[in-house]
Structure formats: C-alpha cells, structure tokens
Amino acid sequence: MRRIKTIFLTLVLLIVGAFLHYVLPQHDIVRITSTEVIRTDFNGMNRLFYAQADSGATELSTRDLRLINTEMKKTWLFGFIQRDSSKVMVYRNEDTGWIWPPYFKFDSSDLQAQAAAEVSSAANPQWAVMTHYGWRNKYLTIFPNAIGIRPVAGPDVTVIPWFNIVFFIFLIVAFVFLRAAWRQFRERAIDPTMQDVDDRLDRVGHQLNERRGRFRRWLDTWRAKPRK
Amino acid sequence: MALIRLIFFGFIGLTIVYFLVSIYSRSVRREKLEKAWAEEHPESDNVPARDAYVAEGMEQYEKSLRHKLILLVYVVPVALVIGIHIVTTYT
C-alpha cells in the first residue's frame, strides 16, 4: 500500500513538474540566425502544443507559422549553469491571445520584425536573451514559443528569473492558505459535528444496551430454575 | 470573444476564491472573539452575553477595512493580467 502511494505521488509530482516546466517562462542566450514562415498542418498529437490563430484571424486547420532560427548556448539544470558549447534551436512565434498559457501576447508580428532586425553572423555575433515557454521535440515537430527578445552585450549574462521566483512564492503561500483554511474548517465545522454524532451514537447505543438487557432478563425468566 | 470568455470564467473562479477567503477570515475572527471572551470571563456560563459579545465583534469586523481588503482578490489578478500583457507586448 505504501509503495503504491509513493508511486502515485511521484507520478503526480512528475506530471505537475512537467506541466510547470512547459508553461513557465525560461531564458535562453541565443544568436538569431534567420527568421522564416512555414505552412503548418497540425495533427491530433501536436495540436495541443500550438497556440491558436493570431488574435484577429480565423482558426483554420492549416496556417502559416512564424519561426525564429537561432544558435543557442547550452545549459545545465534548467538554464542555471551555462556550458561552453552551443546548438541550434528553433522557436515558434505565435500569439497566445487571451487564452492559454496566460502570457497575453498579441505582438508576434512585431516580435518577428525585431528578431529579423537582430539577425547576426557567427563572425560578428549579436547575443540576445530569448524569453520563451514550451518544448522543442523533433518527433512531434513542436517548438517553444518565443515571448520576448532582449539584446545583450555578450553571451555570459546572468538572468534572474524574477517571474518564476514570485510565482513559486505565490504557490507556497496559496498552499499554506489552503491548508490553514482546511484545518480551520475541520476544527470549527467537521469536528464539532462529528463529536455531536459520536455523542448521539453513544446515547443510542446505551439505550439499546439497556433495552436488550431488559429483554434478556425477561427471557431469562423462562429459563429453568436451578434445582435445589 | 476570447476576452469575454476569460472575463466570464475568471469572474466565476475569483468569486469562488473570494468566498473561500471570506469564510476562512470570518471563522478565524469568530474564533479569536470566542477566545478573547473566554480569557476575560474564565468562569462565566453566561451564554447570551457571550453570543452578544461575539455578534458585536463580528458586526464590527464586517464594517472593517480588513474585511473589505478581501476584495483585492478581484483587483490583483486583473492588475496582474494587465501588467503581464504590457510587459510582453510593449517592452
């Protein structure tokens, strides 16, 4: 039983962790190499990993998708430790609109123009911090969604994830509040009621015992008297 | 259309949060009043007086700024949405 509980809890934790890893913003150090637009036909598997059509447009099964091609600095541990090597990375650039995830992004065209303006060569690199959410997966053909591009002087910048810090503090506060509210509710509403029910059950049980006792005594009067 | 949906469901969600927080806050306040009464009148069995004391305290609480601050449950998320939107779109 304990093992099942552990496995279940680990699974829940993994799913929640993966969900947060997908949705929360992350920062990559990139050099933008080019921008492009490709036509995309989604399928049932990867539709989940794309946003909807641009805020002012109609949703169709096929549409153009803005992409930003980059050379990205590799990192360890969710981007906290930088490595010397780099790899290619492709970002999509879509409006998230008023829906999900809640970035309220409507400026993908402007962002695409900015990305095009930041294009640089390996000989004369212009580095930038790319804020994004999402995952790159080659088998599903999914891309992280670019949220913002900020040019920086060199590739060795430290980015403090303020939003994530505030978010996790909020998460802890929300958890503590919910636990306190639940305890208060149990202490003030459930426990007294249970106490009441307990008392009543006790009384009923007692009465029942007494009645049974009387019945027993009456039955016993039918029993043969001990012979003298 | 999506904005209307966001406002609609956001309002429902925040109303649930509002009620949870206000019920909790009221319960904590009532408990505090009961404890204060018990401390001042350790031997008293005067239930009506105690109830009146608690009722008066709760009435004061309903009028207090503290109680009205729970309305921030509606204000903060809206400010946050506007803030995030401005940061992603205009910087």
Describe the structure.
The complex is a heterodimer of chains A (228) and B (91). By secondary structure, chain A is α+β, with helices and mostly antiparallel strands. Chain A has a domain of 136 residues. Chain A has 3 helices and 5 strands; from the N terminus they run αβββαββα. In chain A, a hairpin with a 4-residue loop joins β2 and β3. The mean pLDDT of chain A is 89. With 91 residues, chain B is mostly helical. Chain B is built from 4 helices and no strands. In chain B, α1 packs antiparallel against α2. The longest helix of chain B is centred in the N-terminal third of the chain and has 39 residues. Chain B is elongated. The model of chain B has no long low-confidence stretch (mean pLDDT 89). Classes of the chains: A alpha+beta (228), B mainly alpha (91). Chains A and B meet through α3 of A and α1 and α4 of B. Chain B: This is Cation/multidrug efflux pump. Chain B: Keywords: Membrane, Transmembrane, Transmembrane helix. Chain A: It holds the Pfam family DUF1523. Chain A: Keywords: Membrane, Transmembrane, Transmembrane helix. Chain A: This is DUF1523 family protein.
